[in-house]
Every structure is written in structure tokens, then in C-alpha cells.
Amino acid sequence: MKQTENTKSFWNLIKLTPVHYVLLVALVIIILSLLSVIKLELVINGLVMGSIIAMASMGLTLVYGNLKFAHMAHGDFMTLSAYIVLFILTVPFHYIGMRSTGLGPFTFGYPLLIAIPFVVLVTASIAIGLDRIIYRRLRNRGSNSVILAMCSLGVAIAGRGIVQTIWGGDIEQFPRLSKLYYQLPMDVRIPPDAIFIAGVVLISTFSLHLFLTRTKMGKAMRATADNTELAKVTGINTELVIRWTWALSGGFAAIAGVLLAVFQAQLLPSMGWSFLIPLFAAVILGGIGNPYGAVIGAMIVGISGEVSTQWINPTYKPVIAFAILIIMLLLRPQGILGTRD
Q: Which contiguous run of DSSP H or E holds residue 89?
């Protein structure tokens, strides 16, 4: 009992804002880089991967915050979105003569910018449709969060099967044109696409912040996440809130899937599924149901995974995310920005 009280006192003493956490992590990284303990180029790669994880984890944490279950099919939403974009670029756009590569310094072409809003709309519609057909019926029957999570696992497997049936199980190359990296001091090279990925994530994160804090629906979503029953009593249309939640979740997963395809330059039916552990690690690390915490958690997971490749085989990167997840559950189950129920 005394040890628990001491642990609580410790965490109370280090209550920091999200900005403080970001600055603290940045300071540690800079010091370790200057001491040549870690390679700064790996940190940059980690920031890019962390940005993609952040994009997807924001959608995942919104679902958990409002619907209170772990959506196991979120990674497969990313996969499906990436393959849909590949189809758009290589079939209809190619047929009408739109080049899919060579937009300024980037490896992709302007058709990708046209395709992204379309795939966001498609994936958001699929997410809403799945809720109406499957998840809402289970909620109306009083199914608990475990049943919903297991059902979403079935949806994930089915989605992967659909992708494999249509596109096959082989690696698909994403249309791209090789471009020179930007050379920075300390022997750091940054791919031009990394700047695009970071920009998209920053804009999306800021847009979500404005939506949640400035719009009526955003405030309704926050109220529903805090207390669904109280939100209903105050006149909030929680079913509409749920539809918006799925739309945003699907949209963020779609963008994350496209960014992952751009970054990796290749697609696999299992790419989203293998991304699931880092996503959950980021959500739990930042605080379940907290989009801002998800971003912080994603950066920590992304950087840790990439920097670890300096000492271990890159194949074991998911182990790092899993280790972070376990440690956080043991030390601070509510996450960095989370609060105890």
C-alpha cells in the first residue's frame, strides 16, 4: 500500500503538459546524438514512422474513447486504403494519361493528391457501413467490449482475405520516381517524402484539434467519450457522434495507409496487421482515448523502434513496441496523458 502511494506521489510530482513531454524527449535525443550514442539519421526515420503511427493511432484512440473497445481491424483499414490508392493510380489515372510520379522533389506525382480525398471518403464510408451492419447490432444486444473486439478481429481477417483475393499475396510496388535525399549536417539524409508525410500529419493533427475544441460535433464527441449516458441525458445525439467517430477513424486510417505506402514504396496484404502492435502501444502509452497522447506515444514508439535497429535486427522492431506497451501497463496503466477512471 505504501509503495502504491509513493508511486502516485512520484507521478503527481512530474505532471507535465504535452509540450513539456515533447521538449524532454527532444532534449534527451539531442544529447544522445551529440554523444554519438545514437545515429541522428535513425531518429529522423523514427520521426517519419512515428508520424504515420500518430496518424493511425489518433483514429484508433477516438474509437476506443467513444465506443470503449479495441478495434482490431484498424490496421487493415490502412491496408485496404493503400491498395485502393494503388488501383486508382495504376488503372483509371493511368488510362487517362495521368502520371503517378515526379511531383517536384517528391517520388510521387500530383495524381496521389487527387486520390487521397477519394480514398478517405471510401474508407470512412466502409467504417460507417461496418458499424451499421455489425457493431451497432452488437451494441444494441448489450455485447461487451471483448465481444466487439473479437468481432473486429474477424472483420480484420475478412478484410485481409478480400485484399489477397483481389490483388494476390505478392508484394506490389507503389508507383514512384527515385529522387535525391536532402543532405544535412552530422551526416543526416532526409528523403523528400518525409517532409510531405510530416506536413500531412501536422495539418491533420491541428485540424483534429480545431474540430474537437471549436465545433459543436467535436465537443459532443468529447462529452460522449467522458460519459455516454450523461451525454444522452443532455440531448446529444450519440448515434450521430458514433457515425462521426467512425468517419474520422476511417479517414485517419486511410491517410496513414497511403503515407505508409509512400514511405515503404511497397504494399503487402499484411502491412496493416503488422502495424497494429505499434498502434496500440502508442495509444496506451499516450493515454487511451486521448488523441494528443496518441501523438506523443506514437513519436516515442516510432523513434524507439528505428533507433533500436542500431543494435538489433530490424525484424525485431515490433518487439520494442510490445516492450514499451508492457512497461507502460505495469508502471502507469492510464498512460502519459490519461487519467484513472
A: helix 74-90
What are the two backbone dihedrals, phi and then psi, of residue 267, each rounded to the nearest 5 degrees?
Answer: -125, 140
pLDDT tens-digit map of 64-87:
989 989 999 999 999 999 999 999
The strand pairing partners of 261, in sequence order, are none
Question: Exposed (0-12), middle (13-18) or buried (19+): which is 199, by Cβ within 10 Å?
Answer: exposed
Residue 6 lies in a domain: no
Cβ pair 101, 178 in contact under 8 A? no
Against a cut of 0.85, is the pTM above it? yes
Look at the chain and report how many structural domains it folds into. 1
Q: Per-residue pLDDT tens for 257-301?
A: 999 999 998 999 999 998 898 899 899 888 888 888 888 889 888
Specify if 127 maps to a domain: yes
Burial call 127-151: b when 16+ CB within 10 Å, e when fewer = bbebbeeebbebbeeeeeeeebeeb
Beta bridge partners of 85: none
User: Which domain does 128 fall in, by range?
Assistant: 40-269
| Cell numbers found for residue 205 | 493533427
DSSP one-letter code for 339: -
Binned at pLDDT 50, 70 and 90, residue 304 comes out as: confident
What are 137-193's pLDDT values in tens digits? 999 998 899 999 999 999 999 999 999 999 998 999 998 888 878 887 767 788 899
> Are residues 86 and 267 in contact, defined by beta-carbon separation less than 8 angstroms?
yes
